[in-house]
Please model this.
Amino acid sequence: MVKFLKPNKAVIVLQGRYAGRKAVIIRAFDDGTRDRPYGHCLVAGIKKYPSKVVKRDSAKKTAKKSRVKAFVKMVNYQHVMPTRYTLDVDLKDAVTVESLQAKDKKVAALKETKKRLEERFKTGKNRWFFTKLRF
Amino acid sequence: MVAAKKTKKTHESINNRLALVMKSGKYTLGYKTVLKSLRTSKGKLIIIANNCPPLRKSEIEYYAMLAKVGVHHYNGNNVDLGTACGKYYRVCCLSIIDPGDSDIIKTLPAEQ
Model:
């Protein structure tokens, strides 16, 4: 009886090209819109997970290994598995519904998402989110 | 410890309460609609049959944990649960949205 598909909830995408990837809900549309008459949400997720960083790596190698490739997508609630984790990274201003309309806006949104996810990864918090789900 | 043996009396009372919900309340039957009711936070109690596949059972329990909704494991398989709902088909899981006149939501989680 508690709504759990809220912004900042970490979810796992179940279908499509990004199946198995972890994502975070940025905006939830519980009642749908005219174009999508079903519950859906705007998620930003990790397309390519950062590699494992070892202590003996040089600074250059660490930087290369900590790179994150992001994706932004509108997904149906049915194609998403919610988890008990949250990721409080503020992506509301970077990623909006309009940023999915045009290619250049999408590129800008992805760049910003990538930057914020990478700096979150470097702090070492939310480790679960940045580990690949093995299946 | 050993789980308390489900007496015939409590089992019958669950069936009675379920029959009352079917008559006077709102419910949905089936896995897809149960998940939908949990996502929209409409479900108030979930009942799962005992021969539900374990992966599906865990998934429903996880959703219910996130939604803070009680789950009752029915003492019977999907055939029995369907009969208890007064239907002529099998029901593996069901979600009670509005109990109507029944007190199933108050009494069932208290028993566990």
